[in-house]
Amino acid sequence: MHKIGPRNLLLLVTGSVAFSASAAAEEAFKLPGGASSLQETYQDWSLSCLSTPQVACTISQQQTQQDGRRVLAVELQNTSGEAVSGTLVLPFGLHLDVGTTLQIDDAAALKPLRFSTCLPAGCLVPLSFDAKTVAALRAGSMLHVKAQSIDARELTFSISLKGFASALERLKALVGG
Asked: Does any domain span residue 19?
């Protein structure tokens, strides 16, 4: 039985990792040195890979309060070419019908996103970024997530993009994306 660390908990809770590859490609893909897992840090981003039962790699960032409670988490994987997809986990107490918007630095806000569901880990927002948005994320310094609380206050969560480009490059190098 394998012990699951806190960084890989989001991977299992959201079920967001789905890789489509031929059986031959899956067999050919191994972690460096035949490792069963890999954890690396790139400034504010982490890269995690597990190879049981198949290899799955993600980049992620979690923000916690001083008491250790998670405020938010974001996890992404390379889907094809420059596109990435994943999940954003936000805290409870948000007005779910309003959804959330993302903004890279001071650029115009991206298209509003809807929550998919809430689980004990928090409320989930599916993410899908095309090559143009990924290029903006690589060049940016902050991803602002705007949501509304259930008492109609606007909330902004800020996700640092320091290390995002390096973490994504390493992810692509590992999974051949």
From this structure: yes
Domain count along the chain: 1
Angle, helix 131-139 to helix 164-175, in steps of 10 degrees: 130
In this structure, how many other beta carbons lie within 10 angstroms of the beta carbon of residue 137?
A: 20
Report yes or no: 56 and 141 within 8 Å, Cβ to Cβ: no
The structure tokens listed for 92 are: 């409870």
pLDDT at 177: 62
Show the domain range for 49: 6-175
Tell me if 1 is assigned to some domain. no
Q: How many CB atoms lie within 10 A of CB 92?
A: 10
Mark 55-68 as b/e (b = at least 16 C-beta within 10 Å).
Answer: bbbbbbbbeeeeee
Per-position DSSP letters for 121-132, written without gaps between them: TEEEEEEEE-HH
* Beta carbons of 99 and 115 less than 8 angstroms apart: yes
What is the pLDDT at residue 148?
97
What is the reported pLDDT for 29?
A: 60
For residues 173 and 78, is the Cβ–Cβ distance under 8 A? no
CB of 129 closer than 8 Å to CB of 175: no
Q: Which residues of the chain have pLDDT under 70?
A: 1-29, 177
